[in-house]
Fold these 4 entries.
Entry 1:
Amino acid sequence: MPVPILKQGAILIATVQAALSDSDTERLRDDLMEQVGRYRAQGIIVDVAAIDVIDPFAARSLQTIAHMTRLRGAATVIVGLQSEVAFAMVQLGPAFDDMNTALDLEEGLSLLRRQLVPNNSTIGHDGGG
């Protein structure tokens, strides 16, 4: 099932609505990379609030998405991590220490705006394109 990706100004918001298969996770990664280039996105939010269980492949894929988008010039924030998912990610090791996270979408948008405002005053606003 494809993950919907919405454009909000210079930010892309991907809302994961159910547990993802490995192929769905790879498709999300590929779709985000393509849209970062197409829209010149400066920020990405991946909302995982609907996920209550995460396997090692999906967890590492979130990390890969964050690293790849950073290399493409976009900051990534993972939002909505449930406590069980956060616990599972901690158990996988310190590789996730450099991931930006926020409690929910509102906090994620606020975090990105603070990080990116010097680059573009229209971040996260409809008038940004």
Entry 2:
Amino acid sequence: MSGGNDADFMGRALELAARALEHDEVPVGALIVSAGRIVGEGYNRPIASADPTAHAEIVAMRAAAAQARNYRLSGATLYVTLEPCVMCLGAALNARIARLVFGAWDAKAGACGSVLDLSREPKLKPRIDVFGGVRSSECGELLRGFFAARRSPRAIG
């Protein structure tokens, strides 16, 4: 995908979240866009990789940094289906991500306004522009469905 708007790129992040769901991971997808084109993609895979840092955002940033051969992703936009946690927001700041666009708010671990708002902490530099709620109902429904299925009793056969 090249070009596109925030809703279009979030659509791709939703496709990536569905891939996480196929692997029985929490369905979160992320991508990095620079100069209008996708340069890195990822989805949650901490269980499969036995890596607590393998959140969708981190996986996408690693892919983009490898492609750029630079840990700095200056001017890039991070799209993610769920509000980032402290770890992922910190990584985005360190990578010099310019914009962060997310779908669903995370009332348990969100670091962009739900639990904390580190994106507006004046002592943290550089600044990152944050836009939450893009396609939030779709992003939230995917997550709610995943957790509802986890809580329901499994059939004994």
Entry 3:
Amino acid sequence: MKQLWTLGIRDKNLLSILQKSLSSEIQGEGVPIKGTIQGGLISPLLANVVLNELDWWLSDQFETFTTDHEYWGVSNRTTAIKNRSNLKRFYMVRYADDLTIMCEDYETASKIKIATTKWLSERLKLEVSESKTKITNLRTNYMKFLGFRLKTFKKGHKYVCKSKMGIRAFNKAVKKLKAQVIKIQRTNSVKEVNKLNSMILGLHNYYRIATHVNLDFSLIAFLVNKTLENRLKSILNKQGHISKTFKKYYGKYNFKTYNVL
């Protein structure tokens, strides 16, 4: 709360709500002594507040490093910093408390990992999970980030990133979709059918930026459609109502659709 106040967030009603959320009792666990509730609504907000300082510290190590000379173009500036200083090139991406740092070689990655862990411990009093903090060579292995798997492949004289759904995210999606199909079988309600449609649309919206997600979705469809055809064969129909949402997102596609009586 003190950090929020220092940053200029002086709305006492908001601060009071946040304070109550942090000190609320968790069923079966009691009142938390420190940290935020896993998956809680305010967790991303507080993570952004606390780790904002980390963003700028990392950025100042290379990306937004202040130079005496004003260079024309990002590439010219980057080349000059690499050739005229001991700074190592790296870039960071953070989403709430999930952070990945991209480096050019293992030596740089090792130094950045040690420096960042030490800075978090000494400056923000935060502990870093060793099991979740790994250095990955993207030319040989996939890395996991926000439900995606990322890896680089050589294309001509450069490397490009290829991405797909994470294995855990893939299995979770299949399990939830199958469970929803079973729920439709038991209730045969429009509400549950609409929920299945919204789940599918949500997956498409989130993972559509992955370069190879079409392969993941094809396999998901194969696995889920088996359950759908077996469980709902008595209520499936070739004709059905086409909603505006369906026309908007899938009107141009030519694929098999399922309609429930």
Entry 4:
Amino acid sequence: MPRVLIVDDHATFRATARRLFEAEGYEVVGEAEDGASALEAVARLSPDVVLLDIQLPDMDGFEVSRRLCVNGVSPQIVLTSSRDASEFGDLVGVCGSRGFIPKGELSGGRLAALLE
């Protein structure tokens, strides 16, 4: 199973996502609450997958994704938000992410489908 880093500014969402993924056999290697700590955590933990909230306090998830993809050797990035993907236009498709999962539909199965 992939090693996952969860990035979200809400501790309750991070805890819920951690429980959900661990119950489905994923290894959650860490959590981050903003873009800067996400970039640091990726460098330190080398996750296979980053579940990345789009709305973060210091920079949006699109910018974090672009920065992670700059060297061409980045983890697989899956964006998430409580908002609908249609509200972000083409940004989901051009920032280097594998795709988008609405927070209300988050599951190990949805994650696995995007990673195939």
